[in-house]
Structure formats: C-alpha cells, structure tokens
C-alpha cells in the first residue's frame, strides 16, 4: 500500500477521532480567527484538504457569509464536512489534481494539507494556488517542520500516516516566487503524544 492510500485509509478509519480532537483545538482556532479578521463577507473560499470541515465551520460561525468549496481525498472526512457545514460544497478529490480557472477565489486555505505532499507536489500546488487567487486574494497556510519525513502514529490514529516536514524558509521562497507576499508568519510548539515537540508554522499571505 502506497503512502497516499495508507494515509487516506487511516484518516477514513479515524475521522471521528480527528474531528473530536481538532474541532475545538484552541491554538488552531486562534490562528484561523486572526486570519478571518482579514477577510470580507461574501468572499469565494477554497478549503483544500478540508478534513471534517473544521476551518469551513469556523468561517461560518464567524458571522460573516462566505461561498465555500472544500476538497479532501478521504470520503469519510468529506461526509463529516457536509454534516458539520451544510452550507458548504464539499467533494472527495485529490488536491494534486485540481483544476480551476485563474483568479477564481478570494481566499484559499491549506490547513495542514501540504504535510502529506512531497517537495514536488507541494511546489506544484502552491503554483496553482497562486494562479487561482485573485489579486489581493488571501492564503492561509499551515504545516510542520522539525522532523524527518515518514510514517507516524498520531494522537488520533494508531494507523500510521505519512508526513512531510517542509522547511519554512523553503516555503517562504516558493510563495515569494509565485506572487504571494507574506503578511504574517508565526511558529508554535506542538506537543506530540510521544513527548516530542514539533514546530507548527502558520503563514498568512496575499496575492500581488
């Protein structure tokens, strides 16, 4: 079983555990709230690697109205997203194979989804994202750094999931090379279930 299929199988099996852990996870909610404060009502939003719709749900709870599309490769996650955010449009697709017209969206979220993409896949996706954003469109991007790539057990899954740990410096360069100006970059320590510490990276960027 390949890294993607094994990872998606783990997410399918543990979608409820993931939803329970992260739907009210304060550090992530705070960062998304900060980002939402940059947005205007009525914006067209693309939530890539949407999982159970945690980001989209928070958008709707903000009191602002958005047009939301969400994509995830886990069928069970998509089912949860549709339940959690009935007003959203969620589909089970591979984010590596998406295709939209240029300048289709005002906002794109990549909340901990590039952690499952290798360097080439990540570069390709960020180039697409830049094309899909309108001028002054906003990007929310989060990922981890600080470990070696590979399969891991997690706090929500005994089944192993494959993670890539991208360099923040490398990601910043890719964004700058693709007309995405950094608004803010922050790092937070994340305590793993085995006692180790991973660095979560959060980037807000704007298309120019």
UniProtKB/TrEMBL annotation:
This chain's protein is named Methylase involved in ubiquinone/menaquinone biosynthesis
Q: Which organism is it from?
A: Desulfosporosinus youngiae DSM 17734
**UniProt cross-references to PANTHER family, sorted A to Z:** TRANS-ACONITATE 2-METHYLTRANSFERASE, TRANS-ACONITATE 2-METHYLTRANSFERASE-RELATED
Give the Methyltransferase domain ranges: 45-137
Alphabetically list the UniProt keywords: Methyltransferase, Transferase, Ubiquinone
A Pfam family found in this protein is Methyltransf_25
Entry-linked Gene3D superfamilies: Vaccinia Virus protein VP39
- What's any GO biological process attached to this entry? methylation
User: Which InterPro entries does the protein's record reference?
Assistant: Methyltransf_25 (IPR041698), SAM-dependent_MTases_sf (IPR029063)
Q: Can you provide one Gene Ontology molecular function annotated for this UniProt record?
A: methyltransferase activity
């Amino acid at each position: 079983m390949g890294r993607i299929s094994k990872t998606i199988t783990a997410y399918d099996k543990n979608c409820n555990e993931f939803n329970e852990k992260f739907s009210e996870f304060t550090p992530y909610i705070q960062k998304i709230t900060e980002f939402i404060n940059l947005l205007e009502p009525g914006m067209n939003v693309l939530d890539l690697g949407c999982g159970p719709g945690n980001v989209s749900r928070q958008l709707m709870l903000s009191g602002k109205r958005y047009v939301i599309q969400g994509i995830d490769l886990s069928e069970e996650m998509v089912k949860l997203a549709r339940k959690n955010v009935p007003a959203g449009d969620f589909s089970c697709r591979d984010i590596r194979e998406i295709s939209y017209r240029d300048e289709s969206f005002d906002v794109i979220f990549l909340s901990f989804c590039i952690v499952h993409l290798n360097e080439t896949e990540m570069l390709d996706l960020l180039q697409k994202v830049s094309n899909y954003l309108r001028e002054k469109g906003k990007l929310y991007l989060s990922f981890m750094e600080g470990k070696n790539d590979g399969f891991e057990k997690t706090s929500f899954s005994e089944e192993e999931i494959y993670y890539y740990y991208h360099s923040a410096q490398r990601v910043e360069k890719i964004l700058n090379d693709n007309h995405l100006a950094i608004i803010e970059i922050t790092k937070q320590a994340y305590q793993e279930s085995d006692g180790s510490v991973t660095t979560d990276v959060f980037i807000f960027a704007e298309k120019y």
